[in-house]
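Why do we care about 3D structure at all? Because function follows from shape, and shape follows, mostly, from sequence. That is the central idea of this module. The next example makes it concrete: a single protein chain, its amino acid sequence, and then its structure expressed as tokens.
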Amino acid sequence: YILINLCFITVSTSQSCKIMYKDKLENNSKLLFCEYNYTVESLPNGGCIFKRYYPEYRSITQLVTFKDEKLEIRQGLYQENWDDGTRVTSGNYINNMREGEWMENENEFGVYKENEKQGIWKKFEKENILSRKNSYNNNVLHGAQIFYDTLGNETYREIFKDGEKISTTRDTTDDLKENMPRFYGCENLNLTREKI
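And the structure:
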């Protein structure tokens, strides 16, 4: 009797999730597995897509493309999203290695080559204000790491060679106080910028 009930619950859950996520499936894909918070679809090219959902909003929180139905080799689009749909991470895999342009942590952008960070990576704050640039070689800091204030002025610079910091430059100009961002209601506070 218990086994029959468990089978009924599994079939009911599978059927209800097929209905629940029907509009989230890829064109020309075939649904292989479906549970309360995830689906697995096979694609015409032989690959598969795994999607994890936030069920209450039916939003996709993770999407992983695989080379085959074993779900072992990541190949193609990879995405992670907050429950509200905001993209956190996005990029592509080739044979289980990150490759090409990626976005990480919602606001960092750069390039991977054979699963290693390469070249300039940029970090942005709200309203697309550049806050930092890092230079990588084979996933190791190499070159300048530059920090910026909210006006885009360089405030701090570190130079790395093969992951080791070899020098630091700090902004020592006294005229930065004049260029500090102004906030309504703070004009008469006589604020000064402390040196780093």
